[in-house]
Amino acid sequence: MIEWSEEDLMIRDAVRGWIDAEVRPSLDALESGELPPYDLLRSLYKTFGMDEMARSSFHARLAREREGGPADAEGSGDDRPGGGNAAMSMLPIIELCKVAPGLVSAMGVGLGLAAGTIMKRGTPEQKERWALPLLTMEKVGAWAITEPNSGSDAFGGMQATARRDGDEYVINGGKTFITNGPYADTIVFYCKLDDGAAPRDREILTFVLDRGMPGLEQSKPLRKMGLHSSPTGELFLDDVRAGADRLLASGSQGGRESARQNFVTERAGVAAMALGVIEECLKLSVEYAKTRELWGQRIGDFQLIQLKLAKMEVARLNVQNLVFRHIEMQRAGRAPTLAEASAMKLYAAQAASEVAQEAVQLFGGNGYMSEYRVEQLARDAKSFQIYAGTDEIQVTHIARDLLSR
Ligand SMILES: Cc1cc2nc3c(=O)[nH]c(=O)nc-3n(C[C@H](O)[C@H](O)[C@H](O)COP(=O)(O)OP(=O)(O)OC[C@H]3O[C@@H](n4cnc5c(N)ncnc54)[C@H](O)[C@@H]3O)c2cc1C
């Protein structure tokens, strides 16, 4: 794949039109936190029939599973609608990220991580009960691993526990930086079995929790640097009682391995998010370089400005190539390894962050003003280098793979 097909471009233009009509006019309300993102995302789903596509692919998949076939026909491990049509799953991400990358975080966590985990490890009953309403966007999902004392060392330092009590589990602990945490109806919650083993060696359990369960408190959105259209919050659990019907299967390699599979999906998705930011910053920067005049000439005539534009174009080409390669791999039924996904994420996140910062610089004082939009994209893009594993953690995953060969 070297470029988008005609059909892809039609999809892109339709999504773009919807974003111009629905998201751009709401951007201030999204940025202030006054408007949570979920109704807009539901409207996107309804407008493009993605809710119905999700429903029918869910039922087809469950039918295959019940007949003993593979759970994932495409082999992509991607539970988002359009997972079978890679361009359809990538183009809305890219286009939304040109305007409000937080919308993609809010959507990706609910679909890719929360529903994705339930689809990989749930029983058919658990999938029907919790994953389907997340996949159609009727409900909002969160995926909770990070704690105040365990982010990069997520499993080693995890302190949330589940203690067996008869047929039930009693869960205690706190989570932080949880995307959709304040509004989530359904929470995929990771904790350790309190069985007397040394804390670092304890089994990881994953529960599905519902908003309103006694003992579960969801904080208000935390104030943060950017990504305001994606509410982020804390969770507090005080003796929350969960039956075994809420426990997801650990699988052959346990909860740790399932979380790692999610990292692959999430990290590959960040490359598409980065491409959206880069394309938008480049477009805005070229327009500005052609129109802003100083010393009797347009700033695009200055070689230092040309260098910025040229570096942005190099980043755009490289990240686009990563996205195209990922689409080709999905079509071939191949999922990236953790190291490949980490390499994609590391490069794309840094590229988006640098491009957006350079766009602010190119715009001068206007770049620092919200009206010119690049400052929001610069703040939003910084988050790509932190969540789904920091840059430093991507380096460790890539290096570990290289050194193990
Ligand atoms: C906007 C946003 C949304 C998020 N959404 C979610 C969510 O939905 N669910 C969820 O569970 N979590 C979520 N997170 C949490 C995110 O995954 C963590 O913030 C991230 O993994 C880093 O953990 P930490 O913040 O504890 O930093 P720390 O782990 O404390 O890291 C501090 C510094 O040390 C560095 N470091 C750590 N280990 C090493 C090492 N071995 N070698 C070198 N350097 C190292 C880090 O790179 C970083 O620079 C979100 C975070 C943000 C910012």
TrEMBL record:
Residues 255-402 form the Acyl-CoA dehydrogenase/oxidase C-terminal domain. Belongs to the acyl-CoA dehydrogenase family. InterPro entries: Acyl-CoA_DH_CS (IPR006089), Acyl-CoA_Oxase/DH_mid-dom (IPR006091), Acyl-CoA_Oxase/DH_mid-dom_sf (IPR046373), AcylCo_DH-like_C (IPR036250), AcylCo_DH/oxidase_C (IPR009075), AcylCoA_DH/ox_N (IPR013786), AcylCoA_DH/ox_N_sf (IPR037069), AcylCoA_DH/oxidase_NM_dom_sf (IPR009100). This is Acyl-CoA dehydrogenase. Its cofactor is FAD. Pfam families: Acyl-CoA_dh_1, Acyl-CoA_dh_M, Acyl-CoA_dh_N. Residues 142-240 form the Acyl-CoA oxidase/dehydrogenase middle domain. Keywords: FAD, Flavoprotein, Oxidoreductase. Residues 5-138 form the Acyl-CoA dehydrogenase/oxidase N-terminal domain. Gene3D superfamilies: Acyl-CoA dehydrogenase/oxidase, N-terminal domain, Butyryl-CoA Dehydrogenase, subunit A, domain 2, Butyryl-CoA Dehydrogenase, subunit A, domain 3. It comes from Actinomadura mexicana. Residues 63-84 are annotated as: Disordered. The keyword RNA-binding does not apply.
